[in-house]
Design goal:
The structure is a single chain. By secondary structure, the chain is mainly beta. The chain folds into two domains: 142 residues, Roll (Pdz3 Domain); 169 residues, Porin. Helices cover 10% and strands 45% of the residues. The strands form four sheets. Strands 11, 12, 13, 14, 15, 16, 17 and 18 form an eight-stranded antiparallel β-sheet that branches. Strands 4, 5, 6, 7, 8 and 9 form a six-stranded antiparallel β-sheet that branches. The chain has a two-stranded antiparallel ribbon with strand order 1-2. Strand 14 and strand 15 form a beta hairpin.
Length: 353
């Protein structure tokens, strides 16, 4: 984990707190009433080594998020930023929404307090914020808590409108992120030894499977558990069937059918590394099980009623061959990110079983 220090009006056990609720917006009744919890504290009561961010924090309700077209149900509001503080120097602005710190998603103010515990002056912390429909990323270096009392300009807060464009040019430095994970369709080219199956296919006069492998389809899901590690699952399967008419005895035809089913499923663990803002690599493995099943049948489908019982041929048969086994797959991955919610993942590995 990169150690980064953030300067925040946060609360340690030794700090006395004064919680106030301040309305953001114009004083007239035409503006929506939005209340935010503002935290004030005296710096001399905090431990000297405690990291300082230099902004205030507040929970964001669903109604407020909808009003400003914020798309997610996590994140906290930053109602104010201390001029000249670490947050201001890192590019934070009033009414930004803090999404994540140090690679961990921030759900609410309590979650923020948990994440920043142990951060000290001089630490550098990665962050993501949402501003006017755009996700911005960067690093913030925590400072030392000032000796004087930190006062919030409540008058300026009362004049601030939700959704107003921040003044000044953003100083945010976009950073590299490993992402949060997701779920999606996973087509996979799987090389399987089909020699025995191809022998059966050839004897039946059917086209053999290619030595280069088969295309399987499935789905994958994974989530970020911190420090670049992702835990998830993967399933892929392949199914194919062929039916031919056996006319070795034209007076007594049969249908020959072969069905080939292959599937694998497992739990995945990956470690990602951000190369650029849009390119991420990873190494990891999948551990799970696989199954391969071959079904052969020879059936006469033409019967004459009402003599069906008498006409049922004695030569019908069904054979089912299958194998279940444990498997482990070391793998490597390249992830190309196009949008915060859309990316292309290319992965290669080898299955041991």
């Amino acid at each position: 984990m990169k150690k980064l220090t953030l300067f925040v009006l946060m609360i340690a056990l030794a700090i006395s707190l004064t919680a106030e609720f301040t309305r953001l917006g114009d004083a007239d009744d035409s503006q929506p009433q939005i209340y935010y919890k503002v935290i004030n504290t005296r710096a001399e009561q905090a431990e000297a080594e405690t990291g300082y961010f230099g902004f205030s924090i507040a929970n964001l309700s669903r109604a407020d998020a909808k009003r400003i077209s914020y798309p997610w149900e996590y994140g906290i509001l930053i109602p104010s930023v201390v001029e000249g503080g670490p947050a201001a120097n890192a590019g934070f602005e009033e009414n930004d929404i803090l999404i994540s710190l140090d690679g961990e998603r921030i759900q609410n103010t309590y979650d923020f307090d948990r994440v920043v515990q142990g951060m000290s002056a001089g630490d550098i912390v990665e962050y993501q914020i949402w501003r006017d429909g755009v996700v911005l990323e960067g690093d913030i270096m925590l400072g030392k808590r000032p000796s004087e009392t930190v006062e919030l300009d409540l008058a300026s807060l009362l004049k601030t409108k939700m959704g107003a464009s921040p003044s000044g040019k953003a100083k945010t430095t976009r950073k590299r992120s490993v992402g949060y994970g997701g779920f999606g369709w996973t087509p996979t080219w799987l090389h399987v030894d089909m020699a025995d199956i191809n022998t059966i296919m050839a004897n039946l006069g059917l086209e053999e499977y290619r030595d280069t492998g088969v295309l399987t389809h499935g789905y994958t899901g994974k989530g970020h558990v911190g420090r670049g590690y992702f835990i998830g699952f993967q399933y892929n399967g392949f199914g194919d069937s062929h039916t031919i008419r056996d006319l070795s005895d034209p007076a007594d035809p049969y249908d020959l059918r072969i069905k080939n089913d292959l599937s694998l499923m497992g739990v995945t663990l990956d470690k990602r590394f951000a190369i650029t803002r849009h390119l991420v690599t990873s190494i990891g493995m999948m551990v799970g099980g696989a199954s391969h099943e071959i079904k052969l049948s020879r059936t006469k489908n033409e019967y004459e009623w009402p003599n069906t019982i008498a006409d049922i041929p004695q030569g019908n048969f069904n054979a089912d061959y299958y194998r279940d086994y444990l498997m482990i797959q070391p793998r490597a991955e390249i992830l190309l990110s196009f949008l915060p919610w859309l990316g292309l993942r290319l992965e290669g590995g080898y299955v041991y079983s």
